[in-house]
Amino acid sequence: VATKDQDVVSLAEELRLAKSYFYLIETRFGADYTFALNEGKGKQESRYLPNGALLTLLENVVKHNAPQEGAAVQTTIRVEEAHLIVANTRRPLSGNGPTLGTGLDSLQKRYTLLTGQQLQIEETDTNFEVRLPYLTLTD
User: Fold this and answer.
1) What is the pLDDT of residue 3?
2) Is 15 helix (H, G, I), strand (E, B) or coil?
C-alpha cells in the first residue's frame, strides 16, 4: 500500500514512457533489440507502479544483453491482472564480469518500502523475467 504523495505513477504513464524508450533504442540499435507490448484489458489508469520502475527494467535489458549471431534481444511487456511482466531473451554481453545488480536491487528496495512485497524474478539460461506487482494507493 502506498500513499498518493509517494513517488508512484499510473501504469498508463509508465507504458507511455516505455514506448518512447522503445523508439530511442530501436533508433540507436536498429533491429538488435525488439520490443512487444501486450497491454491486455483493464483500467491502466487505476493501476500504479513506482515511477521509472519499467524504465529501470528496460535499461537493464540493454545494459546486460547484446544481439548474438544476428539474433535480436527480444523483450515483451505483458499487462496482467495483478502484475506487469517484463521478459527478455538472455544474450549476455561477452567479456563482462559479474555485475553489481544495482538497478534491480534498488527497484527491489523501493518495492519493499512501498508495499512490503518482493519482485518475482525468474532466470534461465535463455530468458529473464520480472513480475512487478501493482501498487495500491490510499488516501
Assistant:
1) 46
2) helix
